[in-house]
Design brief:
The structure is a single chain. This protein is α+β, with helices and mostly antiparallel strands and 282 residues long. It has eight helices and 15 strands. It has one domain: Sandwich (Jelly Rolls). The strands form four sheets. Strands 1-11-7-14-5-3-2 form a seven-stranded antiparallel beta sheet. A four-stranded antiparallel beta sheet has the order 6-12-9-10, with helices on one face. The longest helix has 17 residues. The two termini are 27 Å apart.
Length: 282
C-alpha cells in the first residue's frame, strides 16, 4: 500500500502499522475483548469522515455492475424439513435479495483493495480473531466485493456459514439499515431453537442494535450469533465493502454458488470445484 492509500485509515487512532507499540497492544486487547464479549467488534471511524468520500466514489462508479439475485432462505440456509412443525425455525423462509459487485472490478489501483491487501490490515484482523490459519481469499470474484442495497432491501435473520466477516461501511441509505444481532445464541452443541423462534417472533430480549456509520470497520463472528440488516428506505444506496479471509490458501467458491452471487464463473472455479470455499455473505 502506498503512503497516500494508507492515509485512508486513521492510523493515529488505529496504529495497526506499529505492531510493537503500546498503542497497538491496547487496540488489539480492546478489539479482542469486544469479540470475546459478544462476537462483534466495531472500530468507529477506521476510515475517517473526511476520507470516506473517495471510497464512496469508487463504490458508486461500479455499483451498476453488481449482480442481483433473489431467493427465499431460512436462518440456516438449508432446505425445508417436513419432519419439524410448520412454525419451527428450520421451516420459516424469508425473502432475500443480493447485489454484489464482483472483486475483479477492484483492480490494483482500487483503494478498497489496497486496504485489504495491506499486510498490516490482515495481520491485525487475524490477531484480533486469534485465528491460526488465516489467508486472503483466493477467489478472484469474491475477495474484495461491495454489497449494493437499495430501498426496501435488507438481509433477513440468519446465521453465517463462515466463522467471521470483515466489513467496512461506506455509505448509508437515507434511513433504515440498522444491524441487529443476538450474541452467541447457539453453540456447536445446542441450536437453541426456542431462542431462535423468539427472535423470529419479535419477542426476544437478547437483540442488540448497531447503527454503523460510513468509515466504521466491523469484525463479526456470525456463525453462532443470529443477525440481520433491517430494510432500507430512501433513494440513497447503501454500500458496504466485504473483505474475505479463509482458513486455506487456495480456497475459492463453488461454481454453483459463484454463479448465483456474481452471475458468472471463471476457470479457477471449475478447476478447484469441491474445495471448501463457499461463504454466505452479509
Amino acid at each position: 500500500m502506498s503512503v497516500d492509500q494508507s492515509n485512508l485509515i486513521d492510523l493515529d487512532r488505529y496504529p495497526i502499522h506499529l505492531p510493537s507499540s503500546h498503542e497497538y497492544r491496547e487496540l488489539l486487547a480492546q478489539t479482542q475483548a469486544q469479540l470475546n464479549d459478544d462476537g462483534c467488534a466495531v472500530l468507529r471511524g477506521f476510515v475517517p469522515a473526511e476520507r470516506i468520500a473517495v471510497l464512496a466514489d469508487e463504490a458508486d462508479s461500479v455499483a451498476d455492475l453488481g449482480h442481483r439475485s433473489f431467493n427465499k432462505t431460512n436462518v440456516y440456509f438449508t432446505r425445508d424439513n417436513p419432519d419439524y412443525p410448520e412454525n419451527h425455525p428450520l421451516r420459516r423462509f424469508f425473502d432475500r435479495s443480493n447485489s454484489f459487485v464482483p472483486a475483479d472490478n477492484f483492480g490494483v489501483d482500487s483503494r478498497l483493495r489496497n486496504i485489504y491487501e495491506w499486510r498490516h490490515f490482515s495481520t491485525f484482523v487475524q490477531q484480533a480473531l486469534a485465528e491460526e490459519r488465516f489467508f486472503r481469499y483466493a477467489d478472484p470474484l469474491a475477495d474484495v466485493i461491495v454489497n449494493v442495497a437499495e430501498e426496501g432491501a435488507g438481509f433477513p435473520w440468519h446465521f453465517d456459514t463462515n466463522n467471521y466477516t470483515v466489513t467496512l461501511a461506506i455509505q448509508n441509505a437515507d434511513a433504515g439499515g440498522a444491524f441487529e444481532y443476538c450474541p452467541n445464541l447457539r453453540t456447536p452443541e445446542d441450536e437453541n431453537y426456542d431462542a431462535v423462534e423468539a427472535v423470529l417472533d419479535g419477542r426476544s430480549t437478547q437483540v442488540k442494535t448497531l447503527v454503523l456509520q460510513p468509515g466504521d470497520l466491523q469484525i463479526f463472528k456470525g456463525r453462532y450469533s443470529l443477525h440481520r440488516v433491517k430494510p432500507l428506505s430512501g433513494p440513497r444506496r447503501r454500500y458496504v465493502a466485504i473483505y474475505s479471509f479463509v482458513e486455506e490458501p487456495a480456497m475459492v467458491g463453488s461454481p454453483e454458488r459463484t454463479r448465483q452471487l456474481y452471475g458468472r464463473v471463471l476457470p479457477i472455479h471449475t478447476d478447484r470445484a469441491g474445495m471448501r470455499g463457499d461463504t454466505l455473505i452479509d
